[in-house]
């Protein structure tokens, strides 16, 4: 079993990942043209915000302090989304590709957390959020393929 400090570290990594997702989806929503994608990305940003809130509560429960920001790699990814959106003329396929790339990172971080001996109540929440990440990833990938085929 993990000690509280290890649990907090793992949860803070996921918290940063959720914040990266929230900000990434918000950025993608800003650059897509299709209303369907704007709505989807805005909803996903809200879901990531909710996930971050739940993780913050767990971190506090285990005696930690929730990290305030996302990760450096998330900031770089958002910067790339901004540049790509400006350069490609807000291409929906490009934004879907960037969202999928971000979800790939989230999948890996959640998978790594689930490999840890987390206490059962924490594991249940992390698993639930991981399932959401997988659904997001699959939906974004499917939409990317659909939009790519339409172009």
Total number of beta strands: 0
Distance between the termini: 51 Å
What is the approximate shape? elongated
Continuous helix count: 5
Rounded radius of gyration (Å)? 16 Å
Task: State the helicity in percent bands.
Answer: over 70%
* Major beta-sheet overview: none
Note poorly predicted spans: 70-89
- Mean pLDDT figure: 86
Structure in words:
By secondary structure, this protein is mainly α. The protein has helices at 4-31, 35-61, 72-87, 92-114, 120-150. 83% of the residues lie in helices and 0% in strands. The model is unreliable at 70-89 (pLDDT under 50).
Fill in the keyword field for this structure.
single chain, 0% strand, mainly alpha, 83% helix, 151 residues
In short:
The protein has 151 residues and is an all-alpha fold. The protein is 83% helix and 0% strand.
Record the SSE blueprint.
Layout: H1 4-31, H2 35-61, H3 72-87, H4 92-114, H5 120-150
Helix pairs in contact: 1-2, 1-3, 1-4, 2-5, 3-4, 4-5
